[in-house]
Write a structure and sequence with these properties.
- By secondary structure, the protein is α/β, with parallel strands linked by helices.
- The protein has a single domain (8-331), classed as Rossmann fold (3-Layer(aba) Sandwich), CATH 3.40.50.10900.
- It has helices spanning 37-48, 112-125, 174-184, 206-220, 229-244, 248-267, 280-286, 288-296; strands spanning 8-10, 23-28, 50-57, 73-75, 78-80, 88-93, 99-105, 130-139, 147-153, 189-197, 329-331.
- The strands form 2 sheets. Strands 1-3-6-7-2-8-10-9-11 form a 9-stranded mixed β-sheet, with helices on both faces.
- Helix 2 (112-125) crosses helix 3 (174-184).
- The longest helix has 20 residues, at 248-267.
- The chain is globular, with a radius of gyration of 20 Å.
- InterPro entries: Proteasome_assmbl_chaperone_2 (IPR019151), PSMG2_sf (IPR038389), Rv2714-like (IPR008492).
- This is PAC2 family protein.
- Residues 321-333 have a biased composition (Basic and acidic residues).
- Residues 290-333 are annotated as: Disordered.
Length: 333
């Protein structure tokens, strides 16, 4: 493995000896950003809280551009606006005035061990006591129920009363691999994953981001305000409901998911296997027309696939957000 020290570089204006932040939040992409939860969380944190960039990774060394191609504009007779990938470390200040770190960017394609070693070095240099990863994952759940969180940790003491989700083998993500490596070094890591309805995986779903913010506040001791997230969630919920109301087939599927969800919550335990859950193919068939309508009606007012723009998200009265309790945690819609 190449040595990790040359992979990350601090900004020239940053004296790392003066940075001592307790929490590092990591939102590096994984298989897919279900519900755009990570992207919305990054945007919310960086637009809501005071921040500065501390440094960045040399992404050219850890990116497979053929597998994950950046975008560029062809403007008549020339190219413009190449969107170079970036993996950056920021220092933010929460509402209470406490600083914390945020590492954003795409999932590394190459040199996972080296990137994990570089993150371990950052944790050591900046006196980080807790690392928290945040993401959205697709699940067979209805949008009409609170968003739940799956929580994992390197030590059970980090999440008192947390319940496991069973044992199975799966393809690894960088986040999962990094968590194990940091845990092997006796470092504390908590993983937060918001459950996004499978039929909304490719659409912005601010309800999942709200659940992640509450998870950060509860489990990492941060004080991050909701800002415009709740207003955005209400608008998106209205768009989704409008689509559901015109599809009897989709109403039936969602009713089935609601019954499943309610039985699960009554038992307060996650199933170890998927015996009683509809598989992705079942749900995919049932919501095919719904997803097609999102593509066909892009830009229309009732389109659940298009998030509200900045003007639509303007201020307004805010409801109480999601609240966390015994695992699983959940938030209001």
């Amino acid at each position: 493995m190449f040595e990790p020290t040359s992979l990350f570089h601090y900004e020239n204006s940053v004296d790392k000896r003066t940075v001592h932040d307790r929490v590092l939040v990591i939102t590096l992409g994984s298989y897919g950003d279900a519900g755009s939860a990570q992207a919305q969380l990054d945007e919310h944190l960086l637009n809501t809280l005071a921040h500065r960039r501390l440094g960045s990774f040399d992404v050219d060394q850890i990116t497979d551009y053929r597998e994950h191609r950046p975008t560029i504009d062809l403007d008549l007779d020339h190219y413009a606006n190449y969107a170079a990938p970036a993996m950056e470390l920021h220092e933010l200040t929460d509402k209470s005035g406490a600083p914390f770190l945020l590492l954003t960017g795409p999932e590394p394609s190459l040199q996972w061990e080296r990137v994990a070693g570089s993150i371990e070095r950052i944790v050591d240099e900046l006196d980080v006591q807790l690392v928290v990863t945040a993401q959205g994952i697709p699940m067979p759940v209805p949008h009409t129920r609170p968003v739940t969180l799956t929580k994992l940790s390197t030590r059970p003491e980090l999440l008192p009363g947390n319940q496991g989700i069973g044992s199975f083998r799966m393809s690894a993500s960088f986040s999962a691999m990094m968590t194990q490596r940091l845990g092997e070094k006796s470092l504390d890591v908590i993983n937060l994953a918001a459950h996004v309805p499978q039929y909304l995986t490719d659409n912005e779903y601010p309800q999942a981001t709200i659940a992640l913010v509450h998870g950060l506040n509860l489990n990492a001791g941060l004080d991050v305000p909701m800002g415009d997230l709740e207003q955005a969630a209400r608008l998106v919920r209205g768009q989704i409901d409008a689509q559901v109301n015109v599809s009897e087939q989709l109403q039936q599927v969602i009713s089935q998911l609601e019954g499943q969800y309610d039985r699960f919550m009554a038992g307060r335990s996650l199933p170890v296997n998927g015996e009683n859950l509809p598989d992705a193919e079942e749900i995919g068939r049932a919501v095919e027309d719904f997803l097609a309508s999102l593509d066909d009606e892009g830009g229309q007012d009732g389109d659940a696939g298009n998030p509200p723009d900045d003007e639509e998200r303007g201020g307004g009265p805010q409801d109480s957000g999601p609240h966390d309790g015994p695992e699983p945690d959940h938030g209001q819609q």
